[in-house]
């Protein structure tokens, strides 16, 4: 009955959004409360779960999303995105734009959290789409596939890193195996799959679409790349420093503070305010107006993501992920396929890749101690399953839909199917790799 109640809650969410045309934020609140009652959470605790879910998700994301929107708006308005797109097109050519986006997503996605990479690179996607009259989803999916795969498969991202520690796997070996699987996975789910998405009607947020500027008004190539990608350099640098430095070191707390994604985005915005703003003869009031416009455009996105967090928390508090995992534990199948399947089902029901991966880890752990499976491949199999079919209960689904401004149907046809491809191709890659090691 537990799984049935989960599906009822999700169906109610879908019907409120698609049939009754409710605002998604309101639909999330209603379906979250319904799920709480159906799954047996005491009535006096349901409101607390909803609030905890909204606050927990926004606590991690709100600074990143808001600062990222401001930085993205400035990168677009200053002409930096135009300069970057011109350089990329001169290297790859317009015909290979999807490969350019895939490579960019891979390079940025290895050190950055998915949400940070998303808000940093979306303005570039929209600029390329606008300037070269290309469908936005066609341009964006390869980049998003790369970001998503690196987030789910590769340490030092949170879930893979935690799984490596829990299974006693080798971080370097897991990363090496992961890269072997990641490359073909993002090629199939990125440039190849994108060919089928050219007819999707997307109207990207206008805040990230600036009109082309004359060549002489554009910032320089170094300034453009440095200002737009400074968060990448800064996060990588602070991460390396923390790995090389003991926690007892005097500077460790300060490096950890400035290395937090929210602080990185704030520092990056301040630097860009000078390099792309004041240095390019913008006045402070004009820059602040740009930032205000950026936040107006993403206000509803923030609320929708908060709603997704509410539903996720209610499902977690009800214990549904553990119930699903326990019911599937007795399956007599290949350990890697079993781990992938449990993770995929929890992911579809709960919506969180991290929760799905870490829940499965507790169930699958005895297999590792028994020596029945390579722990490095197990990390990758769970990582692949954790990306399975992102839909209404996943904040990533709504970020894609709202930023690209596409219909629910087209979001499923593009984003959700891309995530499914990533999960399935990733599992196939793990099983093939197992034959050779």
TrEMBL record:
Its main location: membrane. InterPro entries: Glcn_transporter (IPR003474). It is found in: Cell membrane. It is a multi-pass membrane protein. The chain crosses the membrane at residues 5-20, 26-43, 55-76, 96-122, 134-154, 174-197, 218-242, 254-277, 298-316, 336-365, 377-400, 412-433. It holds the Pfam family GntP_permease. Keywords: Cell membrane, Membrane, Transmembrane, Transmembrane helix, Transport. It comes from the Bacteria. Belongs to the GntP permease family. This is Gluconate:H+ symporter. It comes from Fontibacter flavus.
